[in-house]
Amino acid sequence: MDLVLNVADHYVLTPYVYPAWWPEEAALRQIISLLVLTNLGAAVLYLGLGAISYVFIFDHNLMKHPHFLENQVQREIRYAMTSLPWISIPTVALFFAEVRGYSKLYDSVHESALGWPGLLLSMVSFLFFTDMCIYWIHRFLHHRLIYKLFHKPHHLWKIPTPFASHAFHPVDGFMQGLPYHIYPFLFPLHKVLYLALYIFVNIWTISIHDGDYRVPGIMTGVINCSAHHTDHHLFFDYNYGQYFTLWDRLGGSYKHPSALMGKGPHDVIRKLQAEGKLGDDGVKVGGQVNGHSCKEE
């Protein structure tokens, strides 16, 4: 994060915002700057990438599904934009520790003992490490003593849109984001790669909420895509993973996507249309989805 902070200091904060007597390395100044940059960056990534996905990828026909809520998109955005500033507070504490040199982030490839192969290794290990951590954190958040306190708001969106991607309770959002931030304190990681992975994580989080259920055949059982994650929103006890299905398989929580078996949200809509039960604004059908009851949490 110090790369972003340095750029902001050089081009904006030092010449135009802060008084000349306040040094860039002052702790309070860095904390204030990180809070502003983190909130601004989160809003731009969420709203910008979410809007692109919503306009060009999300199938708006899904808004006719019985479980799509009234004014859902506005509610998702409002919830996310309310939560993100709270999530940023503990996140900035970790960013501040990085800026002060307590992490294992490095500037040059030559600082890595493995050189360029080390970049590839750290990228792969980052994905597998964070996927493993998020799986278990996610399952923990579904524990009956925890779920209603923190994770239930995210499951309001049974048919999520890309804007549901960041619509978490602040505690939930921070906990599921924590593995991304603790990785560079445990393992060496190039600073530029860290920023690239941070952007990728946001793109991926939006993508598994984007309603595009297409999955390349050979990847269906390996990659956790929107089809898998939508079943998590609908059926609650399955597909906790972030990128891969590995830990769901090991943990006994894998469910083959219903959308790929002719039992998904689009199939429900087509069935209701064929039966003449679907109006322009959708039909609310007492919790039943294609013969399967959505678990009430």
Task: Explain the overall architecture.
By secondary structure, the chain is mainly alpha-helical. The chain contains ten helices and four strands, in the order αααβαααβααααββ. The chain has helices at residues 2-17, 27-56, 72-99, 115-141, 147-150, 170-186, 191-207, 226-235, 246-250, 265-274, and strands at residues 105-106, 189-190, 288-289, 292-293. It has a two-stranded parallel ribbon. A two-stranded antiparallel sheet has the order 3-4. Strand 3 (288-289) and strand 4 form a beta hairpin. Helix 2 (27-56) packs antiparallel against helix 3 (72-99), helix 2 runs parallel beside helix 7 (191-207) and helix 4 runs antiparallel to helix 6 (170-186). The longest helix has 30 residues, at 27-56. It is globular. Mean pLDDT is 90; it is low at 283-293.
| Shape call | globular
Helix content: 55-70%
Number of helices: 10
Largest pleated sheet: 2 strands, parallel
| Radius of gyration using CA atoms only | 21 Å
Number of strands: 4
For the termini, the CA-CA separation is: 38 Å
In round numbers, the mean pLDDT is 90
Strand proportion, as a percent range, falls in: under 5%
Low-confidence stretches: 283-293
> What is the spatial order of strands in the main beta sheet?
1-2
State the secondary-structure class: mainly alpha
Secondary-structure element pattern, one letter each: HHHEHHHEHHHHEE
Give the SSE map:
Blueprint lengths: L1 H16 L9 H30 L15 H28 L5 E2 L8 H27 L5 H4 L19 H17 L2 E2 H17 L18 H10 L10 H5 L14 H10 L13 E2 L2 E2 L4
Parallel strand pairs: 1-2
Antiparallel strand pairs: 3-4
